[in-house]
Amino acid sequence: MTTVSKLAEPVRGQVDVDGLLLSADRLLMRLHLRCGGKECGPLAVPELAELCRLSRRLGMNLSRPVQASDDESRIEMWVETRLASPEKANALSLSIIDWKEYGHDESDKIDPARERDFDRLEGRGAIRTDSALRIIAQQMPGEAAQYFDVIGRSLLDIYDVIPPSANARLLEAVAERQPIRNQRMRQKTEAQRLFVLQGYPLIDKTGLFAGYRFTAEPDDQSASGADIKRTSGKLISDSLFGLQLGPALRQPLGKIIANAETISSKLEGPLRGDYASYAKDIASAGRHLLDLVNDLSDLEAIERPEFTVAGDDIDLVDIAHRAAGLLAVKAADHQIRIELPDEDEKLPASGEFRRSLQILVNLVGNAIRYSPDGSVIKLRVSAEPGFSRISVTDHGDGIAAEDQERIFEKFERLGRSGDGGSGLGLFISRRLARAMGGSLDVDSKAGEGSTFTLSLPDRKKT
Question: Does the model's pTM come out above 0.90?
Answer without folding.
Answer: no
